[in-house]
Amino acid sequence: MAVEVLLPKIGLTMQEGTIDEWLVPVGAAVAEGDALLRLATDKVDVDVEAEAGGLFHPVVPAGSTVPTGALIGWLLAEGEQPPDPAGTPMPAGSGTSTGSGSPPALDGADAAPAAPSVNGTADRLLSSPNARRVAAADDVDLTAVRGTGPGGRIVSEDVEDFLLAVPGDLGDRGTPVPAGVLPSSPLVRKLAKERGIDLSAVNGTGPGGRVRRSDLDALTAAPVRRDTAPRPGDVLPLTGMRGTIARRMHASLQEMAQLTHGYEVRMDAVVSLRERLKEEWDDSDPPVPGLNDFLLKAAALALREHPLLNATVREDGVHLLDGIHLGFAVAVPGGLMVPVIEDAVELSLPEIARRSRALAQSAREGRISPAQLEGATFTVTSLGGYGVDFFTPVINPGNVAILGVGRLRDGVEWVDDRPLRTRVLTLSLTFDHRAVDGAPAAEYLRTVAELLRRPLRLLV
Asked: What number of other Cβ atoms are within 10 A of residue 447's Cβ?
């Protein structure tokens, strides 16, 4: 019996996703739990596993952006044909039905245009983003590469196979394979040399035990950069993470009555306490909490006293939420991620420091799971490290407030007509005026400030 493959909904806020790459060829036998596709969402790129076994038959090409729950493929029994898609609406960008019962073409004829080949030709050439990156790194003309992916699509392994088959007259790319080393592409040998990896000790997953680039990545846990720094003249498409962030932030400002309070906070006691902790902290303990960790803990405790800020607006009213789950913004290449510290109000400050560092590192390295990016009831975002004093953060949809943190700077307080140097920063609280009025928002900021004035209470 044919089993539908539907685009999964990863988290409460996901509305659509992009099929970055099919990981198995058309007609391949798939077992339950096998990685089926690489999915790009607004928050994270993740491998999606098959929920059943069968012979794989895609109905949309790689590169398509489709809504959650859309039909993207079938898992079929031996000899079984995919059901007639007539009358079933296809997602945008996936091609059109022929009306004959056949799936939409996957060879590029009716699909969204593929990126041009590396040598600049305008051919409609189907290739995965990773294949194009590998080809660019070794100056490979993709028109000369035979694709083995769905509909003849070129995947990164095809480029590596092409390099391996090229005679040894290409300079560095034609470097002979050392004795005792399993066959691998010149690119893989180059990466192995850069990473200090002995290829003879690597278990290759390619044909005949050939070492692939993915084997090196798995061995070193080194992330593959998915973008490069923008340059003047570039056109950055509003797709993938960037596009979804744009749509969600625009919708947030359109749908909420957002207002921002600025509030200066004394940080002398926190700075002094951190210096003492750094002197006394045992290396075996969790990391010394940073300023942002103190702010996360204070923000969580203050939410317990001001539950209006820990809420969500629905059609029937403002729902005050039970758990206090803090999201905190982390800048990543090409966008922003918001990992979530669950039940933050119940955690000690050292545990918040441990979790915030681990989550931030996972986000920057592309290893964070979708579950770790969902469920925030309130968000903290800091631009202090960039020298910003005050800004107006935009509320994440589903929340009613977000707290911005500015840079630590010198301030002045007058005591008996004498100036006293202080350490201060400015908090920027943006709140949804539909759910919270100005006075309760100000009271929340005052509570955060009082907690930071006496930070010993935050250590527990």
From this structure: 18
**Residue 65 and residue 93 in contact, taking contact as beta carbons nearer than 8 Å:** yes
pLDDT at 112: 33
72: confidence class by pLDDT, cuts 50, 70, 90: very high
Rg (CA), the chain: 26
The whole-angstrom separation of Cα 130 and Cα 40 is 13
What architecture does CATH give domain 129-220? Irregular (4.10)
Domain spans, the chain? 1-111, 129-220, 240-458
H/E element holding 424?
strand 418-432
Q: Are residues 301 and 452 in contact, defined by beta-carbon separation less than 8 angstroms? A: no
pLDDT of 1: 74
Phi/psi region, residue 257 (left: phi>0; alpha: psi -120 to 50; beta: rest), is beta
Annotated catalytic residue, options 47, 84, 141, 437: 437
Quickly count helices (H) and strands (E) in the chain. Answer: 9, 19
Structure pTM? 0.59
Kindly name the residue from 285, 319, 343, 433 that is annotated as catalytic: 433
Is 433 a known active-site residue? yes
* CATH of span 240-458: 3.30.559.10
Q: How far is CA 11 from the centre of its chain?
A: 13
* CATH T-level fold of 1-111: OB fold (Dihydrolipoamide Acetyltransferase, E2P) (2.40.50)
- Quick one: pLDDT at residue 344? 95
* Calpha distance 255→232 (Å, rounded): 34
Residue 138 annotated among the catalytic residues of the structure = no
d(CA 300, CA 226): 34
